[in-house]
Amino acid sequence: DVHGPGFDFFLTGSVWLLLAECIDDAKNREPIIAHVSADNLSRIIASQEILVNNVDKTFPGINVLAAEAYMSATKYKTLFKKITGLSANTFFLNNKLEVAKEMLESGGVTIGEVADRLNFTNAPYLTAQFKAYFGVAPKEYTSKL
User: Fold this and answer.
1) Orientation of helix 88-106 relative to helix 123-134, angle to 10°
2) Contact present, 115 and 123 (Cβ < 8 Å)
3) Which alpha helices (H) appear in 85-122, and where do they start and end?
4) What is the mean pLDDT of the chain?
5) Which of 32, 38, 83, 115 could pair covalently with 123 via S-S, beta carbons 3.0-4.6 A apart?
6) Are 129 and 93 within 8 A, CB to CB?
7) Contact predicate 88/77, CB 8 Å
8) Minimal CA–CA distance to 93: which of 68, 57, 44?
9) DSSP 3-state assignment of 71?
10) What pLDDT does 34 receive?
11) Is the pTM of this model over 0.85?
């Protein structure tokens, strides 16, 4: 019955459930890039530049990057991912792999030498990451050049 107490109870429960879902969605929503201040945007871009220019080193860590950007680690991670679509570590690794690919294309270097120059843990780790990113192992890639 539409006018009975059971229906009122069901309707009230449904409204509260929908309201709770809306609040949950709003609470977990990432900031929209249009709402990122120009200052924060320029700090994230500067951070990207630091990462790209230091692919021959190890990943500096979120706390270091956030401090350089004058942000908390949480804010830095959120904004970096919102702006780039990637975590800072993934962004760094992807750029490192692109440089590794360029080094292999230029020839005259082994996978081990590339791993050493770009500060990968070891050649097997570089090989695994390269294959995951490019879909082909470095040795296979260079044999097709």
Assistant:
1) 100
2) yes
3) 88-106, 111-117
4) 88
5) 115
6) yes
7) yes
8) 57
9) coil
10) 63
11) no
Q: For the chain, what's the residue count? A: 145
Lookup: tokens for 9: 């109870």
Q: Which helix (H) or strand (E) holds 17?
A: helix 5-28
> In sequence order, which residues have a C-beta less than 8 Å from that of residue 78 and are 6 or more positions away?
30, 31
Quick one: tokens of 11? 């309707």
For the stretch 56-104, pLDDT in tens is 999 999 999 999 999 999 999 999 998 898 999 999 999 999 999 999 9
Give me the residue label for tokens 């990113």.
Answer: 133
Percentages (nearest 5) of helix, strand, coil residues in the chain: 75, 0, 25
How many CB atoms lie under 10 A from the CB of residue 2? 7
List Cβ<8 Å contacts ≥24 apart for 95-102: 95/51, 95/52, 95/55, 96/55, 96/120, 97/129, 97/130, 97/133, 97/134, 99/55, 99/56, 100/126, 100/130, 100/138, 101/130, 101/134, 101/141
Q: Residues 109-130, buried b or exposed e (16+ Cβ, 10 A)?
A: eebeebbeebebeebeebbebb
